[in-house]
Amino acid sequence: MYDKEMYERACLSPFLDFCPNDIIEKEIRDGFRHNVRSIIVGAYQVPLLKKIKEEFPDTQTRIGMTCSYPFGGMTTETKVRQALYACEMGLDEIDVGINISALLSDDWDTVEKDLKAVIDAVDGRLNIAPVSWLVKLNLAQIDRLCELYIRLGLKTLKTSAGLHFGSMKVEHVDYVYKHFGDKLSIEVAGRCRTRETAEAMREAGAEYFHMSQWRRICGGEQDYAFNYLTKEGGYQAYRDRDK
Amino acid sequence: MEGKYIESRIYETPKTYDSVKCLCLEAIRDGFASVQVFPSMIELCKKTLRGRDVCISALISYPHGDFTVEQKLAEAREAAEKGAGAVEVVMNTREVKSGNYDYILNEMKTLREGLPKEIIVKFNIEIECLTEEEAKKTAEIAREAGIDYISTSTGLYHALDENRNDVELTASPAEVKLLKEASGGAVKIQSVGYIRTPELAEELIAAGADLISTEYASCVMGE
Fold it and tell me: Which one of 3.40.50.720, 3.90.79.10, 3.20.20.70, 3.40.50.300 gives the CATH number of domain A4-236?
């Protein structure tokens, strides 16, 4: 069933390594057609994203770029360089990988300096969504990280890196919303693969959903997938380890 | 298994500083050729290795290879300046999947020519995404561009079997042979992908692999 509201809460990232360019273009174009919340691409795809956006002059869809996604393992200098590129290209937002290695080593000073350097470079020209790895953190670490975001003036929290690093739970969203929901909007990423989960997370306080399965979850259509064994890709029925 | 064939590798960043230090100390102990880390970890590796003969290899535009060519070069240069002796650049596989091999040639040449000769340039081709024909063509281009190593995979992804169980995309001797032949033996092959046993490592080396890059280096050493 077509669900306009869910499409408008969807964030797409059609840059996966197995996608040929014609599929990437189709995904971007369809994202604009469905008026999704945002389309986030890799840096080299930004000119393509902007070009396709011109076909939709009245669009409300935001455009953005990844910055040290998903691992946050790039140097601060690289993150700043990428963030400045995003500003120069007139993007609306960037998804920034935080220095999770420093965080897990209890080196909060490095976590803060790394993120602050990006924030300072951007200087309010675009929205920053930090990739927060909540699936790897305990509650004390989540508290401290959210407090850091708020202190640095961030308005958005992206819950996790997605891919296969662990599934976000409704409880994660519920916890963050109850404690920080008045200051941080919650963008879910991290294997949100069913409509039921998305709706439960929405109830718990999530605003947006970064998801590879956007067509299926929003409108019951098929998404693009790649079979690493046969080396064939295509729009096909959903197959995942989540039954 | 001799340590000179081994690169000890970090796949993901949710690792503490102690994990990175252990990676380096283990490399010193077992005589590994190199350690593979994220650029933000280079300085810690350098400090831990204290000039020992272990190459620091930095991941560039990892894992999606979605930087512009110029951005890849900038990140690679910075890694070299910080102390990396090698860079592993993730190739733009989307351009291969689109048949734009000129893009790939330019990407590889720009990186090779833009870095000092003493810096080893590896390209990670994510062979799990490529058909045999695409892999062959990529290896031919790597040779033309003068790339030092083809790294086979990021080692990050799984397939699913008919029962929806994960299937690890393990490095194979067949892919090593294919790449070695297609590059005319002119490009070294770094094998990556769930290499956990000395037996598999030996099979890969027998097939022509020059380096085994693995998160399970101690297992491969038979420990």
Answer: 3.20.20.70
